[in-house]
User: Fold these one by one.
Assistant:
Number 1:
Amino acid sequence: MISPEQCDIDRMSHVPGPGDLELSDVLPLSGGVSGSEVARARLSGQDVVVKRTSHSELVALRLFADLDEPMLPVLLASGIDDRGPWIVIPFHSGEPVGIMGEAPDIVHRCIGRLHASFVGRTSGLAGDLEPIDEEFVRRALTEFGPDQLRRARGVLREQLFTRASHLLDRLATDADFGSCVAGFTPTVLHGDLYGLNVLRSTGPGSVPLIIDWNAARIGPAMFDTAMTSAYDSSARRAHDQGWAEIAGASPDESENRVAHAWSSALINAMYAGTVAVRSSARDAEQMIMIAEESLRTFRLLRRRGRAARLT
């Protein structure tokens, strides 16, 4: 989201296109990190958020229309005009968990239900949501990750910068790391499930809200879990509980262990520079340590898997 000084009130009042909606009391909405145009307004007596958004978020929220999940945004109105996609969702007054905060277990349980709901249904979404595939991994490790590190160079010690750069190189040149993603079961992901995209619940009976689906993608379920949580965590167990509520059984543990280690290595390596700038060098260093340990776990699990297939 953008700050008031970055937001043109006149433009925001016409986010959905002239005459499409009767909005009143339009104010720019500050906080968060999205570059989208976001405003708070009144629509038919209800407080709403009006947002210029990505095609991915528009697709994701339309997919959720048939799901009875109070932690997912409800799409009140949406469309595409000459300035691109726009959405209107109810306003939620909660505060974000925080950049290094971990989402409550009930959020992971909700995400588990979401993941299970779309297993086997992703082939029809080709072209609508970006897949996490070998090309995604290549760009993450050779373009996005290094670019974020360069931006953070003034924040990081040279030793840590070099360590993080070498890690990205190791991952990018590991053929097994890039190719194994094709073996993971795909589903619909939030794609950026961390503390700034989870609003705390406020008031009795209220629940958190999972916001900013701009990075919604298709990929392994553990990508969302590994964003903030270890495999041996209550969050991951809550995810599996939610999954079982829809699928009738827990997800495949052997696949998920590998997918979690793989996702954790990728996520922490590619976002270390981002977190250094937005949070601190100390937090970035913690992410590099997690990525290195996750890579070791991934390689160990892959060796064990190959050995088991040979016996």
Number 2:
Amino acid sequence: MTQTPLWTRDEVLDAVGGLAKGADWTAGGVAIDSRNLQPGDLFVALQGPNHDAHDFVAAALAKGATAALVHRMPEDVPEGAPLILVEDTLKALTALGRAARKRSSARIVAVTGSAGKTGTKEALRLVLSPFGKVSASVSSFNNHWGVPLSLARMPRDAEFGVFELGMNHPGEIRDLVDLVQPEVAVITTIARAHLAFFKTGAAIAEAKAEIFEGVQPGGAAILNASSEYYGLLRARAEACGVTRFQTFGKSAEAQLRLVNAELYARCSAVSALIGGKPFDYSLAVPGEHWVMNSLAVLAVVRALGLDLTTAAAQFTRLKVLKGRGSSELVSMPEGAFELIDDSYNANPESMRAALSVLGRSKPREGSRRIAILGDMLELGSESRSLHAGLAKPLLEADVDLLFACGADMTALFEALPADRRGAHARDSVALLPIVQAAVKPGDVVMVKGSLGSRMAVIVEGLRTLDRKHSDNQPLRAANGR
């Protein structure tokens, strides 16, 4: 049986307009990066602030792209190459995503929040899979190009679509949800993030509430009833015509109410009341933040009218994503230490969650819990106080040593007792040799910071740690611990 293509040339032309050149074609996928393009993909040449993908059209075609969408003629493509010439490739990609949504009969879920978006999206991908074919955003493709790209990649026969919507300015989610048009909209949590662009937490909640503007008639909103912004969010949803709600959280009013969570180093056992009835399940990932995310996921399942028991059984297969709390053992000549990679991003709420997970870890007897933290960015005038405010959760987690980098992390470093201070450096590159020298077998080491703090540098440096003695050993931690 011949597989139906994702896109025909005529369908793309109908969606984006433009001028077709070369022979007819069909595409099995859509790509914007020639490095991970698959044979048969349509290559969309986006022009960004640092790179112009038009420079890689020839390479994409040589690698097997079936055609390329361009807004200028590349100089090095073969004559007669299959191209569609448009005025603006980003606008064309957006139009293609809109066309994909329009033709789809999938039940669509949109997820936003200050933290937990990607994890919740991946959990939904997993728990919806027993009920039909699921298409979901790749990685954190949640912005002005990631969302339309994810839509354009949605298979014709998808039965569910799950899309992550991100923002750091007002109006961004409004534009994205206009494309996605979800049946169910989820707000995971509202936290103090992007304060450089928002004056208050309520302003962040207002911006997140833009997601309700795209909810389809008869659709549902998923809200944390324990959030201080619950009333605001519900009012905004109702103003957008949303009449169906599923609420989760710790409060007695929540329809999916957390009764108890047994939190362990690598998993959690959850007891909840769903619609007033007891409901117990297990999570194969640690942390109270994951418990709350799982309740939001089950709220989506309930809003879609699907079986909760079948869905919850999938939580035992849940995995933490790379850079978002994944754990691994790193071997050294004298033994191994545990590395928790939470380096992808950070805000005050996600930092507290990560420190809580570190606090439940089990270092070898005589070994230590070590936090390696980089600046949390985009926190505006409150940044130093929000960094210093992490001292209490760090101490409550019984973290033995903090190694920190960045200008604002000095506030946390200085707020700690002297015996908890490992070292501070200007950036992750400068901090790396210090932590390489300090880590010992049996330790549990957690690395976290905003993406711009480049904490992945430290993660990679620790993964390749070689503690063999040499003539040029890095300096040890300042306090010798």
Number 3:
Amino acid sequence: MENRAQDADGEIWRVLAERCEWTGLDVLDLGCGDGFHLPRFAETARSVLGVEPHQPLVRRARQRVANLSSVEVMVGAAQRIPLPDACVDVVHARTAYFFGPGCEPGLAEADRVLRPGGVLAIVDLDGGSAPYGDWLRADLPKYDPAKIEQFFADEGFDSRDAVTTWRFEDRASLEAVLRIEFSAPVARKAIASVTGLSFPVGYRVRSRRKPSGLVHSDG
């Protein structure tokens, strides 16, 4: 229900497509959860691999893509990806790295499995964007959006805004999702502040391309 509501107008996918092309290429969805995004990549990618550490989610993801011959789901963690070096063209990680400092082992592993010229694309929630960012910071007072932005800039990422809409079919669904996203006190405040069936949520789409190699001059 939450996945269906998120990015109802496809803004994240639009920004992703601008930052990295995956048509005809090999894609790794890192932290793929129950595989919600795997079929979307499989529409045009040559192959799609989902890696997820939690067994129940792995089982659900495998069920979701059972009829897609180009998609596979494996158990693994971001800091220990069960793949050989230089085997994929795109690594996609959605809301997996938004705490910034501390994720260096995962970034290094993503670079390891990327082919030269490949792209690591990270979709982060924007902790500085209201109203969702306000709710997030209320639950995580040590969360510092400016520090996280600086971290990814120092790591060589280009970061772009993606302002999305979370849209729900009914009020009960909206309230249920907010209750699983936030602590009870923050969820109550969030629910009270939202009228209707939708609200904006800001993301940061971060991308970094792996160098293709040195160019040697014949001179």
